[in-house]
Write a structure and sequence with these properties.
elongated, SH3 type barrels, alpha/beta, Rossmann fold, four-stranded antiparallel sheet, single chain
Amino acid sequence: MRYSKDVLSPGWQRADKPVSVETPVSVGMVVEDPSSGFCGAIVRWENGLVVLEDRRGARRSFPFGPGFWLDGQPVSLVPPRPTRPAAPTHTASGSRIGEVGPAKVAAASRIYVEGRHDAELVEKIWGADLRHEGVVVEYLGGIDDLPSIVDEFAPGPGRRLGVLVDHLVAGTKETRIVQQVTSAHVLVTGHPFIDIWQAVRPERVGLAAWPSVPRSVDWKHGISAALGRPARNQADIASTWQWILARVRDWRDLDPALPREVERLIDFVTT
């Protein structure tokens, strides 16, 4: 008898036998281990093992790999394929992300932010929006020289200046200085917080409310102590601020008083 092909050629052992298909596991998938006869739904997987639970509630663990049956077909169980996280649709400020365009030349208008920590928080929440508009944010070390800074900037049509002042409340030195700035092309606003730390919702750092610190104690040192963090020197204070800043995810983690004023400045300099 003649055969149409060599029956001893490589692969004859697997001829006409079903081939195991790699199948990512998922919770609830019902598979059978034919060597033991155990059949059950997948409830979890860990450390290279997949855990099955049968209809009576008994559980058994099996290593990933071939040797399982799914819907009457042999399969090789593998861990789920990693999925790419969905691309963000909004910036940290809540603005919708549009198409990425070419880099923009910096606009003539500027925003000045008093306080290094204030500037870092503005960058984290509104940095993407400001770069999209081509608006540069500059750090303002102190407000005492604000009138001379405004004169040097020379604001005018198409060259607007927005300024965010730290702890701007009625009757303070800051308010009196701001009142000296009268240009229609300058908008000076601020927040009411003792320090920008207070603009972060207290629950983000594990507090029910920001504690009241005695006047005899430096506010940041008092807050650091309330948070259980060291406050021996300026390096400790800087570390506490970075710890707080890391817990701010987007505008929803801030007291509404800050986003309201920053949005006013952005609208002003981009109009």
